[in-house]
Amino acid sequence: MSDPAMDHRPEQGLRQYFTWRNGIAWVVLVFTLLVQLVVLQNLRAYENRAAEQQFDMLREKVTEAIRKRLVDHEQILLGGAGLFDAAGHVDREQWRIYVERLRLPDRYPGIQGVGFARAIRPEERPAHVAGIRAEGFPDYDIRPPGQRELYTSIIYLEPFADRNLAAFGYDMYAEPTRHEAMRRAARLGETSITAKVRLMQETHGEVQAGILLYVPVYEPGLPLTTPEQRMQALLGFVYSPYRVDDLMRGILQAANLPLALRIYASPGEQPQHLIHSTEEIPEAGTAQYSQVQRLDLYGQTWTLRLDSLPAFEARFHANETLVIGLGLGLSLLLFFLTSSLALRHSRAKALAEEMTRHIHKSKHDLRQSEERLSLALKGSNDGLWDLDLEAGTMYASPRAWDMLGYRPNELQSDLRLWERVMLEEDLAQQKARLAQTMLAKVDRFTTELRLRHKEGHVVPVLVRGYIQRDAQSMAQRISGTLMDLTERKRVEQMKNDFVSTVSHELRTPLTSISGALGLIVGGALGETPPTMQQMLEIAYRNSLRLGHLINDLLDMEKIAAGKMTFELREHPLGRLLEEALANNQALCEQHGVRCTLKHSTDALVWVDGLRLQQVLGNFLSNAIKFTPEGGEIRVHSSLRGSRVRISVTDQGPGIPEAFRARVFEKFAQADASDSRQKSGTGLGLAITKELIERMGGTVGFDCEEGRGTTFWCELPIQTPSSETESREGLPRILVVEDEPDTGRLLHLMLREGGYAAERVQSLHQAREKLASGRYEAMTLDLHLPDGSGVQLIEELRDKPTMQGLPIIVISAAHQFDEALFPERVVWLHKPITNAQLLAALDKALERARSRI
User: How many angstroms separate the CA atoms of 395 and 589, rounded?
Assistant: First the structure.
């Protein structure tokens, strides 16, 4: 049986558009489509007219540019002719100066040069040739040779270099095309242009069509009335040769025309007379706009064909697709809008039914979600809490109240409720941690707290929280859970008690056993039978293994509990490496392997020497364990910027690919089976990683399976104290900071600021330094491994010799009250910059000087 609510499903709703009730929408759709069709036709007609007008304008622009440029070139030649008319005789240097002053390459790109061809009668030829040769051209002669009624040798052509040198001495009157234009110019006394020719300058590169422009020059004072008189008075021709492609590029380069242009030096479009063509030419009949223009120029008729290119055509018809798309979109929009109005009753009914279903489903889902949350909280036995920072309220679930022995809402529920149930001695530290979490802009946090039960005893809890923030990352609400850790802490205490028992009850007898077996195996009590000797050696080796296992377990326990202390000092790296090899030499000999050291740096490192020896011992013992007998283990160091890498390379089988991600995990072993060949606890590398990271370094390994493994650690290089402290006149600053990276940063900041710095990491070390040396000031972290920095400040206040020592407190804590020591302390909150540190140091030193 079908559900009535399903009658309005979207699939059936689509059919409503094709019912008679939706007829008005179809009428609107057809009408708007007809309107769009009319608009599109008008748009096409308008764009065609605009394109034709633009094409005509560009055609006029091209023809006018060509005509104007040739008129400008005619004026240049007329100026040259005027120079001859005025001077009568123009020598070569005068002609060079004249042409140079025209600055043709800059103003008229495309012109090949400006020259003068001398008219020479047959009887004048010998004297003319001799005169030119006397000017310094011994090879000069009129080309081509032969007898003619008139010679016109090119004697001046500037610039007189490169291609133009090929035209020197050439008789243009001997070539028919040039002869026709020169004769027309001489007889008419007018400027004349040639048809298409090949210029003498085409000596190399791409050959272009050429033309020449001539202006006749006559002997002054002779009659010039008839053509015959002009020919008799002819002195020569001022002319310019042009490579047409270069000329047109100079004329049209600024126009950037989206047109194809072809120029014919003839009245018609005859291919043999084509003198210029643009690079992009459309195929015949494909151009939407095309026109032929004829241009009469100095006795010649040029034919110009201009065709539109796709870039030009796209300017005027690119919007048709957009108009069609918008029209269809608008029509469909009106159709659906009209349909929506016509069918709104059925749609509203369907929407109401759909909303009702959603509400019912949401209620069901919410009820299920609440049930799941309630069951999950009951199963985990955790409490729930919520702080609304905007409303200033706090909510705690019944289980949260029960953990502390209170009834729900027995205490006033406000934002300070958590402060009232916390131990007083933890309150300042937890406030500082909460403030740091807020400033860090993290969303989630986890921390352990100690709360006060109603009956007075302490309840350890694990708090997990989520912080809701606004757009400015300001906290608005904090919610989370509360887990009772009483049982877990009890188990941890039992484990600690067990470890303590192992430490005191097992290590002492084990030491006696190992020592006694060592004496017996070493022969201190005399020789033993061979069979007994073998058994004693087995017992001795396994007692040593048991001792290493206990030591590794104790080290891991100390690291996890934060009880492992470090005595960080400057150490020469080379001495530490040599010591590590010496300590493990006996183990190498026992396994029949060689161990070599390649030490390439004398760097100083800031480490705990014993802990680093423990790290190197772990690296070496692993390498010895997996290197076959007769193999070699290499220990080497190298500088990597501001850090030094210590590497130990073995010749073992390498680390399997599947195990590499777990190399530094606790109890991890590549072969964890009962039958594994190599013994070990799987703790050595985990301890190594913790020790190196506590000393500010990093660990890793490089491996190719079957080719051995290189384990390495990197440590920061320590600047030798002598470099900063031995410089006379520099004030000495004591840096008290337990975090290695922060200590090195402060050391570097002070050194760059002109101070000599010395670092310590505990109250004990600080007291020793202050007792044995004199310092101008001290930077102090409040949280140190063996106490609070406030203790040191109070101790110094009670010592007359130390009362004036300026102190800069650098800490992330918020609980320190600077008002307690206004005359002694300058406060800086981590993180700090170089400028802040130096400014605070200047302020502290100024206070100290003002009290003297």
Answer: 69
Question: In sequence order, which residues have a C-beta less than 8 Å from that of residue 796 and are 6 or more positions away?
Answer: 770, 802, 803, 805, 807
Domain that holds residue 373: 343-380
Closest of 587, 678, 547 to residue 669, by C-alpha: 678
Q: Is 570 helix (H, G, I), strand (E, B) or coil?
A: strand
Q: How far apart are the first and last CA of the chain?
A: 101
Q: Please list, in sequence order, all residues whose beta carbon lies within 8 angstroms of the beta carbon of residue 365, skipping any fewer than 6 positions away.
A: none
Q: Is 370 helix (H, G, I), strand (E, B) or coil?
A: helix
Residues 651 and 795 in one domain: no
Q: What angle do CA 90, 95, 97 make, to 5 degrees?
A: 130
Structure tokens at 36: 């769009």
Tell if the pTM clears 0.85, that is, is over it: no
Number of domains comprising the chain: 6
- The SS3 of residue 415 is coil
**Phi/psi of residue 475, nearest 5 degrees:** -70, 135
Supply the DSSP symbol for 282. Answer: P
- Given a contact cutoff of 8 angstroms between Cβ atoms, the answer to whether 99 and 159 are in contact is yes
Buried b (16+ CB within 10 A) or exposed e, 138-152: eebebbeeeebebbb
Which residue in this structure is represented by tokens 């840096």? 735
Which helix H or strand E contains 638, and what residues bound it? strand 632-640
CA distance 718 to 735: 15
Model pLDDT for residues 340-398, shown as the tens digit of each residue:
776 665 566 667 778 878 877 777 776 776 666 666 656 657 888 888 877 778 888 88
Query: Per the structure block, which two tokens stand in for 561?
Result: 């509990």
Name residues whose C-beta falls within 8 Å of residue 702's C-beta, 6 or more positions apart in sequence: 709, 710, 712
Hey, is 619 helix, strand or coil?
A: helix
Burial of 509 (0-12, 13-18, 19+ CB in 10 A): exposed
Q: For 143, phi and psi rounded to 5 degrees?
A: -120, 145
Whether the CB-CB separation of 451 and 406 falls below 8 Å is answered with no
**Amino acid at residue number 737:** E
Q: How many CA atoms lie within 13 A of 35 on its CB side?
A: 11
| Measured distance CA(161)–CA(167) in Å, rounded | 10
Q: What CATH number does the domain containing 199 carry?
A: 3.30.450.350
pLDDT digits (tens, 9 = 90+) for 796-846: 877 877 877 888 888 765 445 555 555 667 888 766 777 788 888 888 888
Residue among 666, 653, 837 nearest 737 (CA) = 837
Residue 477's identity, in one-letter code, is: R
State the CATH number of the domain containing residue 467.
3.30.450.20
Q: Is residue 194 part of a domain?
A: yes
